[in-house]
Amino acid sequence: MENKRHIDVLIIGAGPAGSVCGSLLKQAGVECLIVDQATFPRDKVCGGGLTVKAWRLLDMLLPGIQYNYRPITRMRCQFENDAVCEFQAEYPIRMTRRKDFDYSLLQYYLDHGGELMKGSFARFDQQADGQVLVTLKSGEQISCRYLVAADGSNSQIRQQIHGDSKLRAMFLEQFDEGKESDDVFVHFSNNYRPGVFYKFSSVGRDMYGYASVETNDDMPRHKAGFKQALTKFGVPVGRICGAYIQLDTVPHTADNVILIGDAGGFANKLTGEGLYDAFKTAANAKRAIVEGRSFSETNKEEFRKMEHQKKVYEFFFSPIGWRLLRWALRCPRIIKWLFDAKMKRETFRA
Q: What's residue 350's pLDDT?
């Protein structure tokens, strides 16, 4: 089409990965456009917790970013009906409402001159001149030098390149509006291994969740398991929502098409935490674009970490790992040391 639009960088998805990547590109003077089908602010299934490494990284990448959060340091863990392991974290987890948090990131991008367009991705095609031609479901076409996929776990760009994911986790959530506890609680049980039941105390509400990585297409069975866990802890069953998180990290196949955040499978294989890796892969995508390097190179530490996490996940939910976890939960000092070390240990090159 002669009237198709040309842009230097086209980002599909205005969630944390897309908005942060767009803001970083604007800081570097790179022309970019974010396309998203949603109207913001919008809800999203996610605990919404920012660990210390995540909020430190975000503060570094987006100077002056403001968002509403509730700091939580009280951590409680339990295996079956054993005694609860409780400790105070060295640094707080900043609990947010993803609807508001994501909108704050997007607004930062817009306030710094970013452009947002509402639309739905349909497909992309590589062109002979090295450009990428993106077609939206409306029929509109946009050509770009770089296409950045930040369209989440259900990424259509990922689907076009790699097909269906083999490893994914299912997260079910229920909210108790108006109730604010002061802790994060995680319960381990053979009834939902490999998986956990958890409660996050957030802004203006408590959030209960259930995660599982086994036979994820059996939604009714998992909902029944979640309801059983809610009942066990005296929580009235209400409206349950759910989403899948891709845990397969896909390889980088083309230098001008970059997958970041959940679209690339960059979520913690053990905890499901995705915000830190969304920020980090967004920054590494910006480096690849601005410096003219391959994303395989600028993001190599993330790729290496994801491979390592697969091994950690397999051991954690193995019979030996499960017994070791149960033993460790009897020693709060050990759990606190491991938790504090993991929450802050990763470093990042800006």
A: 36
**Number of CB atoms found within 10 A of residue 80's CB:** 11
Mean pLDDT throughout 141-146? 97
| E runs forming strands in 203-325 | 205-212, 241-246, 257-259
Query: Which residues, other chains included, contact 3 with Cβ-Cβ below 8 Å and sequence gap of 6+?
Result: none
What's the pTM value of the predicted model, to 2 decimals?
Answer: 0.93
Q: Using the predicted structure, report yes or no on whether residue 346 has a pLDDT greater than 70.
A: no
In a domain, 174, yes or no: no
Give the pLDDT score at 214.
Answer: 59
Number of domains in the chain: 1
**Taking CA 128 as the corner, what is the angle to CA 125 and CA 134, rounded to the nearest 5 degrees?**
25
Strand order in the sheet with 168-177: 49-50, 85-95, 70-79, 183-188, 195-201, 205-212, 168-177, 241-246
The length of the chain in residues reads: 350
Looking at residue 124, its pLDDT comes to 97
Rounded Cα distance between 14 and 36, Å, is: 6
Q: List the beta bridge partners of residue 79.
A: 188
Q: Is 318 a domain residue?
A: yes
Res. 94: pLDDT tops 70? yes
Q: Any idea what the CATH number is for the domain that residue 291 is in?
A: 3.50.50.60
Question: Is 126 a domain residue?
Answer: yes
Domain extent, residue 340, equals 5-166+245-344
Angle at Cα 289 formed by Cα 10 and Cα 142, nearest 5°?
A: 20
Contacts of 264 (CB under 8 A, 6+ apart): 149, 158, 249, 250, 281
**112 part of a folded domain:** yes
